């Protein structure tokens, strides 16, 4: 009997993305799988039930979870829903099992093969499965648009009958995927853009997108391409110079994040208080605590005339393209162990072995 794959309807408040699209449903069927999707699962991302049916999938009722061999999701399902899953079935998504002890215990008690894709090794071979990168790209784009909306000024330079309007000065903190997307988007909007990262090797990437690398005179270059820890003196000097620079900036977009750990605090309360009234901080890292001490996750606060926005789940705001990228990531990962309509795990494959979660 062919392996059964179920794409679930997300139940987290505000989540519009979906883990299975009509495109990937068709591709999974080509691997020999029987593909099911919960009714209405794709509506938030613009995919109708009919589109799934046309792609060869079948609509699932509430009992299908107890029969599916592989379950695809975006966010981790609730514990009560996990208890319905077939014993020993496979769960793939952004699951963060360590974040909820009850959820982790349920996964273990059901004997699930759990693949939290945020644990995927960051290798060249894994790039087509890298959900953190694909979703960070959308988040960086949306964070920039939010910043442009919040800012009480134009981003581009304008020459008008009422005089010349200078371009906004935008500083992007962090030059990972989200940060680089923010640099590129702010440049497209016409802003004067700078990028800051503790890794000096990111200078070339920032400059290739039209941004200017903000050099604070302190290098964290280490061995093997990794950043080293700054000494207390170096960190204090870096913070002093950054604080002075922020007085000249109109918009700050914070994107620095470390998977599985709280976001590093880079912008202090005192730095925010030293910025000019009318300035804006958009903290993309709000979900893991924020890069800015003034950030309140899910809220927009005013600090002496400086607006600090801590948006959550930004990728979901671009649900169509975010879902398309995410679903392709999942398909490429599932294709590692679904062969000819059957599941065959190769634990010698580091992508499977290192992504798999085992309760410890």
Automatic annotation (TrEMBL):
Superkingdom assignment: Bacteria
Pfam families: AlaDh_PNT_C (PF01262), AlaDh_PNT_N (PF05222)
Catalysed reaction, written as an equation: NAD(+) + NADPH + H(+)(in) = NADH + NADP(+) + H(+)(out)
Listed EC numbers: 7.1.1.1
Keywords of the record: NAD, NADP, Nucleotide-binding, Translocase
Keyword Signal: no
Domain Alanine dehydrogenase/pyridine nucleotide transhydrogenase N-terminal: 6-139
Occurrences of domain Alanine dehydrogenase/pyridine nucleotide transhydrogenase NAD(H)-binding (ranges): 148-310
Enzyme class: translocase
PROSITE patterns: ALADH_PNT_2
Cross-referenced CDD domains: Rubrum_tdh
Assigned protein family: Belongs to the AlaDH/PNT family.
Protein task: The transhydrogenation between NADH and NADP is coupled to respiration and ATP hydrolysis and functions as a proton pump across the membrane.
Designated name of the protein: proton-translocating NAD(P)(+) transhydrogenase
